[in-house]
Amino acid sequence: MVRLPTSAAPLVSIVIPAYGKLPYTLACLRSVALHGAQAPFEVILVDDASPDDSAAHLERIEGLRLLRNPHNLGFVGSCNAGAAAAGGQFLLFLNNDTQVSPGWLDALLRCFTERADCGIAGSRLVYPDGRLQEAGGIVFADGSCWNYGRFEPRDAPDFGYRRQVDYVSGAALLIRSQLFRQLGGFDQRYAPGYYEDTDLAFAVRRQGLAVYYEPASLVVHCEGVSAGTDTTRGMKRHQATNQAKFTGKWTAELAVQPPPGTALGQAIRWRSRGRVLVVDATTPDPARDSGSMRLCAILRLLDVQGWSVSFAPDDGRADPDGIATLGALGCELLGGPTLKDLPAWLRDNGRELHAVMLCRHTVAGQYAAIVRRHAPQARLLFDTVDLHFLREQRAAEVTANARLRHQAQATRHSELALIAAADVSFVVSPHEQALLASLVPTAHVELLSNIHEVDERAPGYGGRRDLVFIGGCNHAPNLDAMRWIAAEILPALRSAFPDITVHLLGDMPGSVRRELAQPGLGCHGRVADLTPWLDGCLASIAPLRFGAGVKGKINMAMSHGVPVIATPIAIEGMQLREGVDVLVAQAPAGFVTAVTRLQSDPALWAQLSTNGMANVRGHFSPAAAAAALQRALP
């Protein structure tokens, strides 16, 4: 027998209307019992005067709240009855011919958390045979509707990103209880059913809120089990008459919907400001590097500002994790089978683009001319990420490497030419912006730096020990810093503090682990969450001897309230004051002195912690980045 988890104080009330079809109802309830949610919930099943003995079986299910309609009310009446009895802050309407999957409900709730304007969130619906049934709905100007993605592969990247839609199916729909009641519930004019979910979506949008399709919530729906598929008989006969009621009610709103016959790809972007393509070398992974964190934040801001955003990795790779990561940011990933050839994609789709952002000179050098040819109307944005020629030039100076010096000269020529040709170029530091003002005075260069939220809950000084270094070996300045730590900085520190450990956090192949291995050096590689490390360390160190741009490792530590000990080159362009916001060390002895000060002076530690967080708020906030994007994309 099914046993449902339940809560006396539910966040969500799951309302399931049922009219017979007991085997499907039991399968639905078993899936809810199996997959549940992290959030507390209750399940209310409304038996709509079923003609069989469904109610007698359902009343024996532990944890289920069973309501019995005295007579048949239809889908609209049953949902409203269940909502009236609900105690949760949210209402989740779920058809009885569905089966849910792991994380389905928490994903819908996450959409509300991450999108302040979310009024309704709906699931990705799939058929039992695995094909996609609905990835959000489109409403045309005549009131006709279409389920976007119908019969397509359910895991295709085209349908793997969160986005605003005209409506979502009432088969799996989440809404705040207060808003649902404020709107009067499902409109009874559509009883017994059809168009009530579309009508609710339009009512929510009239309130200034949005309707979102949430691909991370996957629900199998046996469409037609309850109502059939014949539009001339049974429940289905109400579809045409209710369309007429809907068009009569929403005449003004329908006037700005896409005309019938509009291409579906155009229809789903009908209300966006325009389409923006972003290209980088690989799909960003925020757990991998600072550049990925910054790019993901940029993609999120573009979505919030109303752009329809597509991302193309130059290596063409698109795995499920990458699709999900970008999907949660509202960004379509064009990798895998949908993007075997970016020039061909630009030839076919370039005229749709409002802007193209090319990241890094290696990528921009390949595609800038192709973008100008196939998307001449698009603004060409060049995101330098950092000035590569500056980093290579400094590396050549540190290593006295003639080959690297020649490479830096070639990179300089390439980068400066791209900056001169782009409509807007982005740099991450005021130092680089000032440098380009002298090197390419005619260029439009915007400051678009790292983007971080401050962790206001970071613990204080008590109980902290050890040091961390954040950064992966695939970035030359990081690998050089790790080797310097192992060869000189750590031995100096261990002479003064025999028990101290420096923890290296970031991608690290086995060969480097073996090379650096010694007492007091923790080679942990990439970690799932930096927070526990930052909450427990005394300080973060950034002993970089060359590089360019601003350093995400410093921003990350300061956003968690952790003081930073860094070399002068590491804090270049970050608007940090020595001894006030950061401690600066140029040699191993300087790192020893800085650690000694922090261990013996809690007031200094607290000052650096407070000022570091203030620096992040002032110079590396989402608001500052959003303003730069708005200037670049008016």
Task: Report the span from N to C terminus.
Answer: 60 Å
Provide the number of structural domains. Answer: 3
CATH class of the largest domain: Alpha Beta
Rg, rounded, reads 28 Å
Task: Report what the structure shows.
- There is one protein chain.
- The protein is of the alpha/beta class and 634 residues long.
- It has 23 helices and 25 strands.
- Helix 10 (290-304) packs across helix 23, helix 14 runs antiparallel to helix 15 (402-421) and helix 17 packs across helix 21.
- The chain starts with 11 loop residues before the first strand and ends with a helix.
Layout: helices, strands, pairs:
Layout: E1 12-18, H1 22-35, E2 41-47, H2 54-58, E3 64-68, H3 74-85, E4 90-94, E5 98-100, H4 104-114, E6 118-126, E7 132-134, E8 137-139, E9 145-147, E10 163-164, E11 172-176, H5 177-182, H6 196-206, E12 210-221, H7 238-249, H8 251-254, H9 264-267, E13 275-280, H10 290-304, E14 308-313, H11 320-327, E15 331-333, H12 342-349, E16 353-359, H13 361-374, E17 379-383, H14 388-399, H15 402-421, E18 424-427, H16 430-439, E19 445-447, E20 467-470, H17 476-496, E21 502-505, H18 510-516, E22 521-525, H19 531-536, E23 539-542, H20 552-559, E24 564-566, E25 583-584, H21 588-600, H22 602-619, H23 622-632
Parallel strand pairs: 1-2, 1-4, 2-3, 6-12, 13-14, 13-16, 14-15, 16-17, 17-18, 18-19, 20-21, 20-23, 21-22, 23-24, 24-25
Antiparallel strand pairs: 4-11, 5-12, 6-7, 6-11, 8-9, 10-12
Helix pairs in contact: 10-23, 12-13, 13-15, 14-15, 17-21
